[in-house]
Amino acid sequence: MTLNILSVASEAVPLVKTGGLADVVGALPEALAPHDVAMTTLLPGYPAVIAALPKKPKVLHTWQSLLGEPARLLAGKIGAHDLLVVDAPGLFARGGGPYGDATGRDWADNARRFAAFGRAAADVAGGVAKGLAFDLVHAHDWQAGMTLAYQRFAPAGPQLPSVITIHNMAFQGHYGADLFPALGLPPQAMAIDGIEYHGGISFLKAGLAAASRITTVSPTYAREIREPGFGMGLEGLIRARESEVSGIVNGIDTDVWNPASDPALKAAYSAKALGKRSANARALEAEFGLERGDGPLFIVISRLTWQKGMDVLLEAADHLIGIGGRLALLGSGDAALESGFHAAAARHPGRIGVRIGYDEALSHRMLGGGDAILVPSRFEPCGLTQLYGLAYGCVPVVSRTGGLADTVIDANLAARQAGVATGVQFDGVRYQTLADALTRTVSLFRDPAAWRSLQRAGMNADFSWSGSGGAYADLYKSLTVAP
Ligand code: ADP
Ligand code: GLC
Prior knowledge:
By secondary structure, the chain is an alpha/beta fold. It has helices spanning 20-32, 47-51, 89-92, 110-125, 141-152, 180-183, 203-210, 219-224, 228-231, 235-240, 277-288, 310-322, 335-347, 360-369, 385-392, 402-407, 413-418, 431-445, 448-460, 466-480, and strands spanning 3-8, 37-44, 58-66, 69-78, 81-87, 136-140, 162-166, 174-175, 196-197, 200-202, 213-216, 245-247, 297-304, 326-333, 352-356, 372-375, 395-399, 424-426.
């Protein structure tokens, strides 16, 4: 019997993306299809999402007042799969990004926007639209968290089993208690085992407390979030529900991230023809204004934030150059980091190149031509760019945390002797640990046979969705079988 899953999220490729969440939500329907699971994705009606709908989309339901806003449920497609859209112009029809204006400042009414989104999702799960029936609700991150609270506190009780996936504990959707009356929830919801959090309201906690099961995007992160440094205030709840928390590592879309068929590359290549990468390397050097060199060309494709350890990389930039490396960085984020990397590039002309911005095609060219990709994150629920690096023979150099710990095999002696090493890992994100990892990487690079072995082992590893698609399907099935 095919299972029908309602996937509720605030972003999904190819319609709207600010990070890895969108890649994962966009890939899940395809990943689950082989497992007899039909996934429908529910998104807020941002302009880019409305624009992707047919001119006269089917209206499946109309709300006179969705937490005070008129709204409609529209139907469309995302690739070959079903898409539902909450069209509430008062909440979602505005320029800028999904969470804030063009300058990056959060919208002042995000609490109301994502509470209304959750209210709508719970209504859809509850069968408000004729002909739409689901077996399970899968909510992603804090923006979808209220869906599960509305389900749980519905007058008829929670109708469907549910899963919530934490893509990043650092974002929790905290608001003041004064929001409560506007939410339209019964008084018992404002309790310690409900949506209440330190006297206020937490949308992520609301979802975690209500979900039948909690997942996060790697087994290591699922363990880490039991501890204060990673749980960010919710470690107590995670520990209390420990047996219902698990980690399923993200896959990557191997049609899009495949060096043998990537249209963005100057030269296509495979693990058997790594020599062809040099044409991409020359093109990349030209694009970033870099000199040729006999040390590795490190690349970074990242949000420039504290999470990603970019401040420590900036500190280590002179060391990276001193040991013969070069650096090409693409990213955007904290203004101080952006100007810091510009200054580093000015100090090392021809050795460091920086592009501030977001550029998908350039990210492909960097993976196809760079030697090593740096991901020195302080925490990383899964991380996708190290997986792209593995697929492209661009050796990942990562901190040993979250999904980085689970997906990269450090080039220690035993792993190298067994021929299974795929990258370099280091413990603790500090200047010295990163500097040592960079030094180790440069010496591995200077041993061509060792380096080739790292590249090949990474390229031959399987990071497609086939395993993790099955893991989600098994989880859904375990929650939907009749007792
Ligand atoms: P996070 O979601 O925490 O930012 P992930 O590694 O899971 O980290 O996902 C980041 C996604 O965004 C990847 O697909 C990555 O390639 C992409 N990305 C990040 N910054 C840029 C950028 N400046 N240009 C192009 N793609 C980027
Ligand atoms: C978050 C995390 C990242 C993860 C992504 C998709 O943005 O920071 O580690 O890969 O979600 O799950």
